[in-house]
Design brief:
Elements (H helix, E strand, L loop, with lengths): L2 H9 L9 E2 L2 E2 L7 H31 L1
Antiparallel strand pairs: 1-2
């Protein structure tokens, strides 16, 4: 194991069930990290672009047929 892995592993609770839960979801912390925020934004952008592209495809199919 390298040092970074040990550092990350040391912040996790011994058992995930020890984390507080709200409505069946584990609360990992009160503040989100920048990586979590970036990941959420990237996912939202990808889903949005997928829907925009899908809508554009549907409009082009309607004009062709």
């Amino acid at each position: 194991m390298n040092e970074r892995y040990r550092e990350i592993a040391s912040t996790l609770p011994a058992e995930l069930d020890a984390l507080p839960q709200r409505r069946g979801f584990r609360l990992r912390g009160m503040q989100m990290t920048r990586l979590e925020t970036f990941t959420d934004a990237a996912f939202a952008f990808a889903v949005s672009m997928s829907k925009v592209r899908q809508g554009a495809s549907n409009r082009s199919m309607q004009t062709c047929g």
